[in-house]
Each structure stands twice: as C-alpha cells, then as structure tokens.
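re: ur question from earlier - yeah i can do the single chain one, its not a big deal. heres the input i used so u can compare w yours
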Amino acid sequence: MSGHSKWSSIKHKKGKEDAKRGKIFTKLIRELQIAARAGGADPDNNPRLRQAISAAKSANMPNINVERAIKKGAGGEEGGTLEEIMFEGYGPSGVALLVETMTDNRNRAVSEIRHMLERHNGHMGETGCVAWMFGKSGLIVIEKDKASEDTVMEIALEAGADDVTDEGEVFEVTTGMNVFEAVKDAFEKKGIAMLEANLSMIPQTTVKLAGKSAEQMIKLMESLEDHEDVQNVYANFEISDEEMEKLSA
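and the output i got, formated as tokens:
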C-alpha cells in the first residue's frame, strides 16, 4: 500500500486514544476558522468550509464547537492569527514529504518540524523540491467489511470517480476535485461508512520501505501528526502488509 492509504489503515488499527481527542478537535477548529476566513461562513458557497464541516462531523465534534469556530473565522477573530505553511522535505530512504501546517508562530513551527525530520533520519527541503511528485485529488477509503468490491466499483464509477483500487484491507477510491463531493454523497446515500474521505495529495510514485527505514517512517509520521501545528502529512512511502506485521510483532 502507498503512504496515504497505508497510513490511514495504520491509524485506524491503532485507534484514537481519548487523550488525543482534544488535539484532533484543535486541528479541525483551525481548519474551520481558516476556511471561513478565506471563503465566508456559508458552506453552500465555500467548498473548503463544507469539507471542514464534514470532517468535524465525522470526528463527532459538537455542533456548538463547529458554529463557534466558523463565527470566529468569518469575523476575523482568533483564526486571523493563523498562518498556513506547507513544508517540504524527505524522510528515511528519500521518502517525499509534504507537511501542511497552520501556526501562529512560523519560527517555532520551522524549528520543531526540522528537528522531528532530522531525529527520524530525514531532513527539510527547499520549496518545490517534492511538491511536483504529488497531485491533488479526492480520496475515499472504504474498509472491505463495509462493502464488496463490485458495490464500491459500481457506486464510485457511476458517480464519476477516476479509479478504484484494492489496497489490501481497504478499497481506495480516487476522484477529480470537481466530483469529490458527488462521489462521497453517493456512498453516504447507500449507507456505506468511509474510513477516510477528503481532498488529499496523491503521490505519483512510491518508495518501498522495510526494516529500520519502515520503522523510522512510521515513528516520523506519528510524531508529525501529533504536533499541534500540523494539519496533514502526505508521503510517498510504501510498506507491505507482511512488513507491517513484523513491525507490529
């Protein structure tokens, strides 16, 4: 499996500890604020805000928290102090990394993310060094016990998805940005639960990892995603299911 889908599966297996719930909500609130500030408080006319609201609902965030975040963002309050920064760099064995952040302290974010990369055998890169390896697409991940391959394929293609691939324990549906909402809605109408449904940076090529490099990569991903300023991490690593079983043993 490639980095984006593999990492989704790993996180799902690990589960989300209650202690991290606050951090998850913090990331979602920041995205709601930025989205509302950039495109207004009406989700019907603001696709980014509509996606942020959907993500918040999937995480069971209370409606009052969602409404408060949108209001603050649209009013130019707390959300106005946040800055969006995309860091580019490399992980173990030359894995390409995009680290999407929202921070109120650029210098702190640069220093801490550089330190995390170096600690796990990676390093920060210049702007543009790896971004060209990724393309923005809709990504929907569905566990195999939620629907058959034929069902997923039929719903996805009828709604306009680009492709459906078998990624071991999950099916991965990729879509164009313009039809992502339609494809997601099609699965929701059929009552099929989605492990992940968002706009993602999909790598064009992948780097296969095993042994120590794979272990370092997993630890790096965990470290980055646990950082309060990090919203999303995209990577082009690939780890086999057999290798993941060894790491989990």
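The chain is about 45% helix and 20% strand. not sure if urs matches, ping me
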